[in-house]
Amino acid sequence: MKRSRQEVTRFWQQHMEAAKSFPGSVQKYCDTHEIQASSFYNWRKRLLEARNFEKAKFLPVVISEAKQPAEHPQRALPNAQWVAEVMLHLIRGLA
User: Fold this and answer.
1) 7 Cα distance to chain centroid
2) What pLDDT is attached to residue 19?
3) Domains identified in the chain, total number
4) Local mean pLDDT, 10-residue blocks, the chain (95 residues)
5) pLDDT of residue 92
6) Cα within 13 Å of Cα(39), Cβ side
7) Which of 35, 43, 48, 69 has CB atoms 3.0–4.6 Å from 12's, for a disulfide?
8) Can you tell me the distance from the alpha carbon of 86 to that of 90, in angstroms, rounded to the nearest whole number?
9) Taking the CB of residue 40, how many other CB atoms lie within 10 A of it?
10) Residue of 56, 59, 85, 78 whose CA lies nearest to 93
11) In this structure, are 11 and 48 located in the same domain?
12) Same domain, 41 and 76
């Protein structure tokens, strides 16, 4: 029976935590638990990247009134609320 992605992720998360307190090297840990070191390193990288992505997923957006420059009123920037909404739609589309 094939394991779900969540089960596989949980399996590797548990191994990452256990390896931190293991007295030997990563290679020795992998040999002891009969897992491939290359898979261990691959999953360690994937889990670290996923954690970093989750931390950076949302960025604060400050909305303020756009000020029209006195010398060039036709070159005014778009309304900040509009820009924030466009960015929000773009971000949601990428997720």
Assistant:
1) 19
2) 92
3) 2
4) 85 92 92 94 89 68 73 67 86 74
5) 82
6) 13
7) 43
8) 6
9) 19
10) 85
11) yes
12) no
- Joined together, the tokens standing for residue 16 give 């990452």
Torsion from C-alpha of 20, 25, 26, 29, nearest 10 degrees:
-80
Domain limits at 80? 58-95
Residue written as token pair 């773009």: 90
3-state secondary structure of 75: helix
Alpha helices for the chain (secondary structure H): 5-20, 26-32, 37-55, 80-94
Do 22 and 49 belong together in one domain? yes
Q: What is the pLDDT of residue 31?
A: 95
Residues 50 and 64 in one domain: no
* Amino acid at residue number 3: R
C-alpha distances (whole Å) from 74 to each of 13, 38, 81 are 56, 59, 19
* pLDDT for the residue 43: 92
